[in-house]
Amino acid sequence: MSITLLCLVKGNTTANVFAIDIDSGKLVSHLKKVIKAEKQNDFAGLDADKLRLWKVSIPAKQPSAQLTAVSKISVNIKDELGGVELSPVDDISEHFDNGSNKPIKKNLHIIVEPPIERKEVHCSAKYGRFSKKSFQWTVTREMVTLYSLKKRVYEYFTFPDGTEPEHLVISRVISGMSRRISKPKSNLSSPNQEKSDEAVIESKTIHISTDEDLASTIWTSAPQVDLEMVVDTSQQPFSWYTYSRMKVLFGLQVDDYNYLPTECLVRNGDISDELLESVISEILRNHTASPPITGDTNEATRRVFISSIIYAVVSTFGGEVKIIPEYEVSGSYGKGPFDWVIKIGDIIICVTEAKRNDISHGIGQSSAQAHAFMQRNRNKRTYTDADLYDEEMFCIISTGMLMKQNLKRFKMKCVNILTPLIFLTPGVEWIMTKVILRGNEYDENNSGIVEVRVCSPKPDPILLMKSSLTKEDIREPVRNLLVQIKGLLEEQRDSVVNGKRHKTWKSNKSNTVKQLI
Question: Does domain 118-185+196-234 bear CATH number 3.30.70.330?
Answer without folding.
Answer: no
